[in-house]
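dumping this here before i forget
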Amino acid sequence: MVVERRVEWSDTDAAGHYHFSAVQRWVEAAEAVLLRRLGLDGLFGSIPRVRFEADYRERLWFGEPVHTELRVEKVGRSSLTYGFEVRGPSGPAATGRMTVVHAAVRAKGSAPWPDEVRAALTQAGPQDAECYHREES
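structure:
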């Protein structure tokens, strides 16, 4: 899944390039598009983040195009790890992974994925990475 957008003013810091936290918002926006496309938007509110790691490689500036690619890397018993790449005009700007777990809203721990959710997540593959979503700015 690739989400295309532009670096907004609110995405930047005092130096004028994207703030590190913008990457997490862009990745989560791509996740939302992917889950909707898979018919899994009912997961919102029950998949807390347990790990987010990013390597920042290149600066992106206000108004520049940004392409966030998100892919399912691993589906565990109750966890899901995404890989991502954020690209700008000069190539990769950030790469990394985000792991979420399946848990009820007020649960104290994780719960196994329902069979139909596991099947949809496991089948999310290269064909979904080819899907583009363009956000107007």
